[in-house]
Amino acid sequence: MTEDSRVLDARYYMPAFGRTMKVVRGAGSRVWDDQGREYIDCVAGIAVCSTGHCHPAVVEAICDQARRLIHCSNLYYVPNQAELAEKLVGITGLSKAFFSNSGAEANEGAIKLARVRTGREKFVAFVHGFHGRTCGSLAVTHKPAIREPFEPLSPACTFVDYGDLDALAEVVDKDTAGVFVEPIQGEAGVLIPPDDFFRGIRDICDDAGALMIVDEVQTGMGRTGKWLAIQHTGVAPDIVTLAKGLASGFPIGALVAREGLEFGKSEHGSTFAGGPLACAAALATIGVIEEVLPDVPAKGERFMKGLSSHNPRGRGLMIGISVGDRCPEVQRICAENGVLVNCAADGNLRLIPPLVITDEEIDTAVGVINAALD
Ligand SMILES: *Cc1c(COP(=O)(O)O)cnc(C)c1O
């Protein structure tokens, strides 16, 4: 990073992030910093660059749409919007979609939809769960350090231990609008509950008339080897939210809901959401994922096998390793040796590479990560 950018950032940008490196270019599963150093990217913009960096089909779709229409607002039918909604309904097996500009906003929409359709106000979510940083999505996000400075928040939310169905059954009642759950907790560091957890949540929600809202912002769009991680469990949610991997880095989020759950006229909206460029990028992204999705489980297994001496856990290309206090040091050593990895919460090393990562890149990354961990 040039001294100039560092100085400008320190002087003019709010210091909400801790960072040292400047990434200036990407292609496939590689990125380059401003010193010309090359890295295999096992962070992928935090599970965003699902098709790799600057995939030609995505670049082409964005450029092509940009030449015709960049924005027109939701006052009119928007090019690519209904086509993308149809795709997402097909992928999720649900009924109708609504777009947003981010994961947090998708969850905001889910909160509003649950409240307006159930007529109830309260939510239940899980310890270590993450659903975003806007006021509503933060209210259902557990981490006290990021939530408590902003209290009181709305909606009211009760947190129970992830995986604890008895505790869940005790707090979900006739006033509960919805239960927010990640199929695998991502920001927490790739925590995977037993599959029957989700059947249990479904039953508890059905008994109380509460909605089961599955946050697939990080786990969705092929990350775990299926379009949605909840599809590994056979459980059908009421609402699914998506964002990160949906458009290869172009900002977009979505909520998709079952039959009978929809916003009526004027109940929700957004100036930018579901715009022509975002939907073009998402459609192109889905086209690429359709091709690579069958290979994701084997790629994930190759990673897991390579890292097996360090007890990795994961599903598809979403892998976590408990490292503890050494995690930041491991992250630094990996970067020095040309592999980007990321420390999620509680010393959990997280690997969320592009779905297009090659076997050779996996083997190289595994070698560097193993050496850093040893
Ligand atoms: C990242 C994330 C969000 C928030 O998405 P933003 O686009 O950062 O608002 C919500 N839920 C989960 C599970 C996430 O991983």
From TrEMBL:
Q: Which domain of life is it from?
A: Archaea
Return one Gene Ontology term, BP aspect: L-arginine biosynthetic process
- Could you tell me which pathway this protein works in? Amino-acid biosynthesis
User: Which cofactors are reported in the record for this sequence?
Assistant: pyridoxal 5'-phosphate
Might you give the EC number(s) for this enzyme?
2.6.1.17
The residue ranges crossing the membrane are none
Could you list this entry's UniProt keywords, alphabetically sorted: Amino-acid biosynthesis, Aminotransferase, Pyridoxal phosphate, Transferase
The primary gene name is argD
Q: Which CDD domains match?
A: OAT_like
**Name by which UniProt lists this protein:** Acetylornithine/N-succinyldiaminopimelateaminotransferase
Family that this chain belongs to: Belongs to the class-III pyridoxal-phosphate-dependent aminotransferase family.
Give the source species. Methanoculleus bourgensis (strain ATCC 43281 / DSM 3045 / OCM 15 / MS2) (Methanogenium bourgense)
Q: Which Gene3D superfamilies match?
A: Aspartate Aminotransferase, domain 1 (3.90.1150.10), Type I PLP-dependent aspartate aminotransferase-like (Major domain) (3.40.640.10)
